[in-house]
Predict the structure.
Amino acid sequence: MITTAFKTNKLYVFWLIPLFALALWIQTLSMSELPALSQDSFQMPLYTIVYSFFELIDIKFLSGIFSLILLLIQAFLMMNTNQKYEIDKFQSYLSPVIFIIISSSFLPMQRLHPIFIANLFLLLALSRIFSSHKKENVLSNYFDASLLLSIGSLFYINLIFFIPLVWISLLIIRPFRWREWAITFLGLILPYLIVEAYMYFVQGDAKDLFVTILLNLLFDSFGKFYDLRYWHENLPFYLFYGFLLILIALSSFHMQKDLKFRKIKSRNGLYIYLWMFILTATIHYVIDSASMELIIIYAISVSSLISNYLYSFSKTWVGDIFVFLLLGFSIYIQIAA
């Protein structure tokens, strides 16, 4: 029933998704006070502009709405990319719905946070990478991809550690051509050179950027302290993430069997998503400042994986049960909060 409903192209399904996302966020959006984040104290240069704007208007609700709108844009952008490059086997609204459920599962993240801006740049970079398939001249694709990740890291520093994803994609999609590799380094350093020049000539102190980066990398994010406190004896979260892990495992086994039936373009996209998941997990556990905010990046590859699995059943009611359980545990988090 529910999986079949999301397979339709009817307009009412499109408009139901923002209402569904708002329902998951409404409780947090209505809160007048939220705990402080380390990113609020040590802002990356471009995030300072966004943060200062919302501080100026001083309406907490609007900053949360801004993040929710960004999340919705990313959900539909991801859906468009997955369908265009045949990563999703079926044209459906299910993958953006799963993306929203997973991204909204950690309630302290339902607020203004630089990851919501940075993730948009990551999705745009992925789109540029995927579009290089069977293309002769791809210098602009990989320059753009590294440039987008570099700009995104000026909002959220840990995005810089996804630059290896560009190089991994080159290994997967392209034969070795040194110019394609060299151009990624230009895209990487260019935004930082511009910001450094601005700070030196306009603000008179180029050291500020280095200090800000260092603080963002070394200072514990809200997650390392807050996550443990939030998880302590929190049954809804154990149920949701436990079930999600089971679903990821089942979907992975299915995808392993399904890969041989996929086109090369589709397989390449799935391999890149796999490496992105591995890279995200590595950053999560190695970089001290990275924490549960990465759930939104995990959700990109996981939502596509699960969506493909749920549509693999000949009897649609089996997929419906999985969706209802995931949604039910998500609602339980909201009720128990």
About this structure: The radius of gyration is 20 Å.
